């Protein structure tokens, strides 16, 4: 590869120009330059190769889940879990298609690193309870954590105490980042946020997700957003979710909620107001005419104190 070298001397000093030309003609500068550039190119290639070759450890037993370090991928199968799975900062747990996790009561996942759920259509990753009546805790995504779900089914979560001491986030409590596509959240419950409680974090509900039969003792039957940001894309369904206070499907409090098009809010309910959506001192962006609202009680959307 040819590199052009330009050295600008003092053109009034013919002696300096002459010395520069002699140095260039001798090839000393060019050889030195090309040597340095060659070393840098090799260093960049080696760094790139090392990043691509980060060792991914395949794990296949319950005991392997007791200590997640580095990048770990759980092999397909059914796993009964009687402890808290902890993903520390800097580590990652991958759950591929065919994995089924069943948690005992008071057990769940704490994610301060990364959690990636990689199911497939017809072979979703299942995260649920050993005993449906007792349920399991939930997944906590810490402030520096990130979780990404694709083709997951999450059910019978019962939440855990949040920073305010309230039981929230039946399936997922978010303090960091959470993303979901093509996933189902069903029959989860908590005081706040029957399926998901976002606490000053970022939540993206992309496309083709279903929130069904989730419930909140207070508000946010499916999703409760507190001072965070929630983005809901297209073709998502919120059906049969309920809250004993308000926000049968979604409750936004001092946060921001953006809702795209072709989403369906059907038969959600709240005791007081906001059968589908309740916004309180926050920002709600939605074009109701581009979404479908059917049979929500006592109303579809309520904005106010």
Task: Please tell me about this protein's structure.
The chain has 305 residues and is mainly beta. It has two domains: 1-53, no CATH class; 57-303, Pectate Lyase C-like, CATH 2.160.20. 12% of the residues lie in helices and 42% in strands. It is built from two helices and 34 strands. It has helices at 14-26, 28-52; strands at 56-59, 71-74, 77-81, 85-87, 92-96, 99-103, 109-111, 114-118, 125-129, 139-141, 146-150, 152-155, 160-161, 167-168, 172-174, 177-181, 184-186, 189-192, 196-199, 202-207, 210-212, 215-219, 223-226, 229-234, 237-239, 242-243, 250-253, 256-259, 264-266, 269-270, 277-280, 283-285, 292-294, 301-303. The strands form five sheets. A ten-stranded parallel β-sheet has the order 1-2-5-8-11-16-20-24-28-32, with no helix packed on it. The longest helix is centred in the first third of the chain and has 25 residues, at 28-52. The termini are far apart. The model is unreliable at 1-13 and 47-53 (pLDDT under 50).
Stated plainly, the CATH topology of the largest domain is called: Pectate Lyase C-like
User: Number of domains in the coordinates?
Assistant: 2
Low-confidence stretches: 1-13, 47-53
CATH C-level class of the largest domain: Mainly Beta
What characteristic shape results from the CA principal axes? globular
Tally of strands: 34
Rg for CA atoms: 27 Å
Query: How far is the N terminus from the C terminus?
Result: 67 Å
Summed over residues and divided by their number, the pLDDT gives a mean of 89
Structural class: mainly beta
Instruction: Report on the biggest sheet.
Output: 10 strands, parallel
* Range of strand content: 35-45%
């Amino acid at each position: 590869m040819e590199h052009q070298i330009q050295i600008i001397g003092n053109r009034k000093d013919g002696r300096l120009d002459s010395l520069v030309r002699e140095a260039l003609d001798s090839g000393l500068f060019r050889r030195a330059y090309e040597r340095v550039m060659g070393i840098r190119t090799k260093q960049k290639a080696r760094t790139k190769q090392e990043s691509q070759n980060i060792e991914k450890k395949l794990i296949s037993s319950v005991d392997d889940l007791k200590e997640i370090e580095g990048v770990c991928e759980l092999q397909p199968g059914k796993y009964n879990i009687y402890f808290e799975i902890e993903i520390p900062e800097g580590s990652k747990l991958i759950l591929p298609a065919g994995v089924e996790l069943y948690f005992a009561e008071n057990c769940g996942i704490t994610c301060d690193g990364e959690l990636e759920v990689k199911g497939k259509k017809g072979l979703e990753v299942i995260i649920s309870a050993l005993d449906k009546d007792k349920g399991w805790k939930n997944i906590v995504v810490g402030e520096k954590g990130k979780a990404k779900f694709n083709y997951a089914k999450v059910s019978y979560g019962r939440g855990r105490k949040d920073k305010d001491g309230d039981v929230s986030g039946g399936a997922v409590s978010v303090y960091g980042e959470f993303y979901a596509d093509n996933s189902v959240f069903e029959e989860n419950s908590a005081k706040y946020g029957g399926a998901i409680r976002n606490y000053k974090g970022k939540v993206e509900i992309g496309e083709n997700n279903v929130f069904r039969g989730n419930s909140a003792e207070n508000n946010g039957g499916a999703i409760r957003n507190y001072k965070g940001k929630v983005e809901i894309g297209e073709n998502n369904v919120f059906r049969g979710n309920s809250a004993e206070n308000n926000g049968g499907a979604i409750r936004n409090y001092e946060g921001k909620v953006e809702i795209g098009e072709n989403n369906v809010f059907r038969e959600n309910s709240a005791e007081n107001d906001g059968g589908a959506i309740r916004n309180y001192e926050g920002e709600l962006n939605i074009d109701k005419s581009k979404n479908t609202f059917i049979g929500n009680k006592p109303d579809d959307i309520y904005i106010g104190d």
